[in-house]
């Protein structure tokens, strides 16, 4: 597995540069990942980005980075007023306004243009965002390969989300039962402390599921009509879901670059 890019250009925006330049690949993979919060799409994004050249571009990670800046955490500068307001929406489990999200993505256009491709995780979240993304990709002549939708019954999603733990340093994702770290509370990859995201707490999970059903589920229909939807069952362990993902990609999309050994 290759070293994961630090995604500095995505997480910090502006002129930040990534520590590891993505390799030139013959056919970069460009996907949108859909799925209810807690379904495990972040884990799949990590697996895909370890095997291919594409970075996981999570809008939620950018808001969480701003949130930690707000509390004297790891981000470099204090958040802008729009970002501070966005953090408030995130803390309540509500969607951040479309325009704020679109501004954030537009500021990071270089990540969409990246020669390694991209995995959009958590964006678009509404049909209005999807339409705006279509316009951006058309204008930039960037091809989207597909939209992978991870499907799982709601009770299972809530159980998964509440057991999730995230590394405070490298953002790697674990689960108390399905994917525990070797040492309790410590990240296997970087030794960082694991924590439960504020929005993975039970009260917030419920709001997020309702928000997902209301705003994001219509996206599935949107992309189905465009012939881009690839539905994958998210039942089982991450390795099994990943194997299904690779099979579906091989079947539906021209074979992308082989995963690195
Ligand atoms: P996630 O990690 O993708 O579940 O995102 C965490 C939170 O960030 C969400 O519950 C929203 O409050 C906010 N967020 C992330 N991406 C978006 C988006 N595309 N549109 C609106 N809000 C978003």
Please tell me about this protein's structure.
The structure is a single chain. With 261 residues, this protein is α/β, with parallel strands linked by helices. The protein is 45% helix and 13% strand. The protein is built from ten helices and eight strands. The strands form two sheets. The protein has a five-stranded parallel sheet, with helices on both faces. Strands 6-5-7 form a three-stranded antiparallel sheet. A hairpin with a 5-residue loop joins strand 5 (164-167) and strand 6 (173-175). Helix 3 (59-70) packs across helix 4 and helix 8 (154-163) packs across helix 9 (202-225). The model has no long low-confidence stretch (mean pLDDT 86). Adenosine monophosphate is lined by residues 37, 58-60, 63, 89-90, 93-96, 101, 122-123, 125, 129, 199, 208.
User: How does the helix and strand content classify structurally?
Assistant: alpha/beta
Number of strands: 8
Order of helices and strands: HEHEHHHHEHEHEEEHEH
Shape: globular
- Helical proportion? 40-55%
Whole-number average pLDDT?
86
- Measured between the Cα atoms of the first and last residue, the distance is 6 Å
Strand content: 5-15%
List of distinct ligands in this structure: adenosine monophosphate
Helix count, per DSSP?
10
Task: Provide the low-confidence segments as ranges.
Answer: none
Largest beta-sheet details? 5 strands, parallel
- How big is the Rg? 17 Å
Strand ordering within the main sheet: 2-3-1-4-8
């Amino acid at each position: 597995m290759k070293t994961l890019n630090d995604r500095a250009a995505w997480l910090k925006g502006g002129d930040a540069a990534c520590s590891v330049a993505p390799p030139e690949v013959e056919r970069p993979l460009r996907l949108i990942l859909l799925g209810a919060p807690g379904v495990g799409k972040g884990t799949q994004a990590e697996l895909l980005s370890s095997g291919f050249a594409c970075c996981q571009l999570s809008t939620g990670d950018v808001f969480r980075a701003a949130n930690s800046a707000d509390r004297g955490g790891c981000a470099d500068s204090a958040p802008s007023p729009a970002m501070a307001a966005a953090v408030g929406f995130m803390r309540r489990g509500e969607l951040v306004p479309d325009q704020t999200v679109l501004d954030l993505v537009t500021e990071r256009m270089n990540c969409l243009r990246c020669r390694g491709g991209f995995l959009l995780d958590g964006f678009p979240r509404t049909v209005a965002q999807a339409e705006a993304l279509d316009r951006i990709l058309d204008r930039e002549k960037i091809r989207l390969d597909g939209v992978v939708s991870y499907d799982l019954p709601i009770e299972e999603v809530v159980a998964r989300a509440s057991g999730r733990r995230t590394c405070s340093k490298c953002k790697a994702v674990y689960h108390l039962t399905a994917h525990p770290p070797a040492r309790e509370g410590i990240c296997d990859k970087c030794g960082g402390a694991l924590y439960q995201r504020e929005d993975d707490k039970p009260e917030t999970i419920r709001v997020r599921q309702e928000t997902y059903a209301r705003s994001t589920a219509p996206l599935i229909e949107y992309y189905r009509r465009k012939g881009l939807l690839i539905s994958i069952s998210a039942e089982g362990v991450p390795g099994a879901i990943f194997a299904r993902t690779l099979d579906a990609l091989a079947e539906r999309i021209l074979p992308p670059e082989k995963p690195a050994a």
